[in-house]
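Single Protein Entry

Contents — chain, fold
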Amino acid sequence: MNNLILLRHGQSQWNKERRFTGWVDIDLTEEGKSEAKHAGKLIKELNIEFDSYFTSQLKRAINSLIIILNMLDKSEAQINKAWELNERHYGELTGLNKDEMIKKHGDRQVNIWRRSYETPPPPMSTKHLYRKNIYKNIPKEMIRENESLKDTFDRAVPYYEKNIEHLIRSKKNVLISAHGNSLRALCKKILCVSNEKIIDFEIPTGNPLLIEFKDNLEVKNFKYLDSKRAKNIPFNV
Protein backbone atom coordinates (compact mmCIF):
# COMPACT_ATOMS: atom_id res chain seq x y z
CA MET A 1 0.00 0.00 0.00
CA ASN A 2 1.12 3.55 -0.66
CA ASN A 3 -1.40 6.02 0.65
CA LEU A 4 -1.21 9.72 1.41
CA ILE A 5 -3.62 11.58 3.65
CA LEU A 6 -3.72 15.36 3.44
CA LEU A 7 -5.45 17.12 6.31
CA ARG A 8 -6.17 20.80 6.71
CA HIS A 9 -6.02 21.57 10.44
CA GLY A 10 -9.22 21.93 12.42
CA GLN A 11 -10.91 25.30 12.79
CA SER A 12 -8.60 27.92 14.30
CA GLN A 13 -9.68 30.96 16.30
CA TRP A 14 -9.04 33.19 13.31
CA ASN A 15 -10.91 30.84 10.98
CA LYS A 16 -13.86 31.37 13.29
CA GLU A 17 -13.34 35.13 13.27
CA ARG A 18 -12.84 35.14 9.47
CA ARG A 19 -9.43 36.75 9.71
CA PHE A 20 -6.48 36.26 7.35
CA THR A 21 -4.10 34.12 9.40
CA GLY A 22 -1.12 33.23 7.23
CA TRP A 23 2.07 32.82 9.25
CA VAL A 24 0.60 34.00 12.59
CA ASP A 25 0.65 31.11 15.07
CA ILE A 26 -3.03 30.86 16.04
CA ASP A 27 -4.36 27.80 17.87
CA LEU A 28 -7.46 25.64 17.44
CA THR A 29 -10.92 26.43 18.75
CA GLU A 30 -12.84 23.79 20.67
CA GLU A 31 -14.70 23.06 17.45
CA GLY A 32 -11.34 22.71 15.70
CA LYS A 33 -10.24 20.17 18.29
CA SER A 34 -13.48 18.26 17.74
CA GLU A 35 -12.88 18.33 13.98
CA ALA A 36 -9.41 16.87 14.51
CA LYS A 37 -10.82 14.13 16.77
CA HIS A 38 -13.43 13.27 14.15
CA ALA A 39 -10.70 13.21 11.50
CA GLY A 40 -8.69 10.85 13.70
CA LYS A 41 -11.71 8.57 14.05
CA LEU A 42 -12.20 8.45 10.27
CA ILE A 43 -8.51 7.76 9.68
CA LYS A 44 -8.45 5.02 12.31
CA GLU A 45 -11.36 3.29 10.57
CA LEU A 46 -9.18 2.89 7.47
CA ASN A 47 -6.94 0.51 9.41
CA ILE A 48 -3.85 1.89 7.66
CA GLU A 49 -0.45 1.67 9.33
CA PHE A 50 1.31 4.97 8.76
CA ASP A 51 5.07 5.18 8.40
CA SER A 52 5.68 8.95 8.55
CA TYR A 53 3.92 12.08 9.78
CA PHE A 54 4.55 15.62 8.55
CA THR A 55 3.25 19.02 9.58
CA SER A 56 4.13 22.71 9.51
CA GLN A 57 5.73 24.89 12.18
CA LEU A 58 2.34 26.34 13.19
CA LYS A 59 0.52 24.99 16.22
CA ARG A 60 -2.94 24.74 14.65
CA ALA A 61 -1.55 22.10 12.26
CA ILE A 62 0.76 20.53 14.86
CA ASN A 63 -1.98 20.21 17.47
CA SER A 64 -4.41 18.76 14.93
CA LEU A 65 -1.83 16.07 14.15
CA ILE A 66 -1.19 15.41 17.85
CA ILE A 67 -4.92 14.88 18.43
CA ILE A 68 -5.05 12.46 15.49
CA LEU A 69 -1.99 10.56 16.71
CA ASN A 70 -3.66 10.14 20.09
CA MET A 71 -6.74 8.77 18.32
CA LEU A 72 -4.49 6.33 16.45
CA ASP A 73 -2.69 5.28 19.65
CA LYS A 74 0.51 6.68 18.14
CA SER A 75 1.23 9.47 20.62
CA GLU A 76 4.96 8.60 20.65
CA ALA A 77 5.35 8.76 16.87
CA GLN A 78 8.00 11.06 15.40
CA ILE A 79 6.59 14.24 13.86
CA ASN A 80 8.46 15.97 11.04
CA LYS A 81 7.88 19.75 11.23
CA ALA A 82 8.72 21.95 8.25
CA TRP A 83 8.18 25.66 7.70
CA GLU A 84 7.81 24.86 4.01
CA LEU A 85 4.38 23.41 4.83
CA ASN A 86 3.24 26.63 6.55
CA GLU A 87 0.19 28.52 5.37
CA ARG A 88 0.57 31.18 2.68
CA HIS A 89 1.94 34.54 3.86
CA TYR A 90 -0.96 36.98 3.54
CA GLY A 91 1.20 40.10 3.72
CA GLU A 92 -0.59 43.27 4.78
CA LEU A 93 -3.90 41.38 5.01
CA THR A 94 -2.59 39.34 7.95
CA GLY A 95 -4.94 39.61 10.92
CA LEU A 96 -7.62 41.56 9.03
CA ASN A 97 -11.25 40.47 8.78
CA LYS A 98 -12.22 39.08 5.37
CA ASP A 99 -15.69 40.61 5.36
CA GLU A 100 -14.32 44.05 6.19
CA MET A 101 -11.78 43.71 3.37
CA ILE A 102 -14.59 42.80 0.97
CA LYS A 103 -16.46 45.96 1.96
CA LYS A 104 -13.30 48.03 1.45
CA HIS A 105 -11.84 46.47 -1.70
CA GLY A 106 -14.75 44.55 -3.23
CA ASP A 107 -15.46 40.84 -3.46
CA ARG A 108 -13.65 40.40 -6.77
CA GLN A 109 -10.35 41.85 -5.54
CA VAL A 110 -10.40 39.93 -2.26
CA ASN A 111 -11.21 36.72 -4.13
CA ILE A 112 -8.17 37.32 -6.37
CA TRP A 113 -5.95 37.77 -3.31
CA ARG A 114 -7.40 34.63 -1.70
CA ARG A 115 -7.77 32.22 -4.61
CA SER A 116 -5.70 33.21 -7.64
CA TYR A 117 -2.50 31.36 -8.46
CA GLU A 118 0.00 34.14 -9.18
CA THR A 119 -1.39 37.33 -7.58
CA PRO A 120 -0.09 38.00 -4.03
CA PRO A 121 -1.82 40.24 -1.48
CA PRO A 122 -0.22 43.62 -0.67
CA PRO A 123 3.19 43.26 1.04
CA MET A 124 3.42 43.45 4.82
CA SER A 125 4.51 46.89 6.00
CA THR A 126 7.44 47.39 8.36
CA LYS A 127 5.00 48.64 11.04
CA HIS A 128 2.54 45.76 10.77
CA LEU A 129 1.14 44.62 14.14
CA TYR A 130 2.17 40.98 13.68
CA ARG A 131 5.45 41.47 11.85
CA LYS A 132 7.69 40.57 14.81
CA ASN A 133 5.80 37.37 15.54
CA ILE A 134 5.75 35.48 12.25
CA TYR A 135 9.36 34.86 11.23
CA LYS A 136 10.79 32.88 14.16
CA ASN A 137 11.06 29.55 12.30
CA ILE A 138 11.75 30.91 8.81
CA PRO A 139 15.32 30.90 7.41
CA LYS A 140 16.46 34.49 7.09
CA GLU A 141 17.13 34.18 3.37
CA MET A 142 13.59 32.86 2.81
CA ILE A 143 11.70 35.63 4.61
CA ARG A 144 9.07 37.25 2.42
CA GLU A 145 6.65 40.17 2.73
CA ASN A 146 3.75 38.30 1.06
CA GLU A 147 3.08 35.20 -1.03
CA SER A 148 0.91 34.14 -3.92
CA LEU A 149 -0.23 30.54 -4.15
CA LYS A 150 2.57 30.07 -6.70
CA ASP A 151 5.10 31.22 -4.09
CA THR A 152 3.65 28.70 -1.65
CA PHE A 153 3.84 26.03 -4.37
CA ASP A 154 7.50 26.90 -4.95
CA ARG A 155 8.41 26.01 -1.34
CA ALA A 156 5.91 23.29 -0.43
CA VAL A 157 6.25 21.14 -3.55
CA PRO A 158 10.09 20.91 -3.54
CA TYR A 159 9.90 19.88 0.12
CA TYR A 160 7.35 17.22 -0.78
CA GLU A 161 9.44 15.97 -3.69
CA LYS A 162 12.58 15.76 -1.55
CA ASN A 163 11.21 14.39 1.70
CA ILE A 164 7.90 12.64 1.04
CA GLU A 165 7.63 11.45 -2.54
CA HIS A 166 10.29 8.75 -2.13
CA LEU A 167 8.39 7.33 0.85
CA ILE A 168 5.25 6.91 -1.23
CA ARG A 169 7.28 5.38 -4.04
CA SER A 170 8.59 2.87 -1.49
CA LYS A 171 5.00 1.88 -0.61
CA LYS A 172 4.98 3.84 2.63
CA ASN A 173 1.87 5.47 4.06
CA VAL A 174 2.16 9.17 4.93
CA LEU A 175 -0.05 11.64 6.78
CA ILE A 176 0.40 15.41 6.34
CA SER A 177 -1.34 17.93 8.59
CA ALA A 178 -0.98 21.39 7.09
CA HIS A 179 -2.98 24.37 5.80
CA GLY A 180 -5.46 25.37 3.17
CA ASN A 181 -2.97 26.90 0.76
CA SER A 182 0.03 24.64 1.32
CA LEU A 183 -2.31 21.70 0.68
CA ARG A 184 -3.81 23.41 -2.36
CA ALA A 185 -0.24 23.65 -3.66
CA LEU A 186 0.42 19.95 -3.03
CA CYS A 187 -2.89 18.97 -4.64
CA LYS A 188 -2.07 21.13 -7.65
CA LYS A 189 1.04 19.01 -8.19
CA ILE A 190 -0.32 15.60 -7.22
CA LEU A 191 -3.72 15.90 -8.95
CA CYS A 192 -2.48 18.04 -11.85
CA VAL A 193 -4.89 20.90 -11.15
CA SER A 194 -4.53 23.71 -13.71
CA ASN A 195 -3.77 27.34 -12.88
CA GLU A 196 -7.32 28.22 -13.88
CA LYS A 197 -9.09 25.51 -11.89
CA ILE A 198 -7.04 26.00 -8.73
CA ILE A 199 -9.01 29.23 -8.20
CA ASP A 200 -12.13 27.18 -7.38
CA PHE A 201 -10.34 24.66 -5.17
CA GLU A 202 -11.02 25.03 -1.44
CA ILE A 203 -10.04 22.47 1.22
CA PRO A 204 -12.38 22.12 4.23
CA THR A 205 -10.96 22.12 7.74
CA GLY A 206 -10.61 18.80 9.53
CA ASN A 207 -11.67 16.56 6.63
CA PRO A 208 -8.96 14.04 5.62
CA LEU A 209 -8.30 13.68 1.89
CA LEU A 210 -7.11 10.15 1.10
CA ILE A 211 -5.01 9.73 -2.05
CA GLU A 212 -4.10 6.22 -3.20
CA PHE A 213 -1.18 5.75 -5.58
CA LYS A 214 -0.15 3.13 -8.10
CA ASP A 215 3.44 1.89 -8.09
CA ASN A 216 4.64 4.63 -10.47
CA LEU A 217 3.25 7.46 -8.29
CA GLU A 218 0.28 7.74 -10.62
CA VAL A 219 -2.88 8.56 -8.67
CA LYS A 220 -5.20 5.57 -8.41
CA ASN A 221 -8.03 7.10 -6.43
CA PHE A 222 -8.81 9.93 -4.01
CA LYS A 223 -11.68 10.91 -1.75
CA TYR A 224 -12.58 12.90 1.33
CA LEU A 225 -13.24 10.61 4.28
CA ASP A 226 -16.21 12.72 5.41
CA SER A 227 -18.36 12.84 2.28
CA LYS A 228 -20.89 15.18 3.91
CA ARG A 229 -18.22 17.90 4.27
CA ALA A 230 -16.42 17.25 1.00
CA LYS A 231 -15.55 20.04 -1.44
CA ASN A 232 -15.26 19.74 -5.19
CA ILE A 233 -11.79 18.76 -6.41
CA PRO A 234 -11.11 20.15 -9.92
CA PHE A 235 -8.78 17.33 -10.85
CA ASN A 236 -7.17 16.63 -14.21
CA VAL A 237 -6.08 13.03 -13.57
User: Anything to note?
Assistant: The CA atoms of residues 156 and 162 lie 10 Å apart. The mean pLDDT is 94.
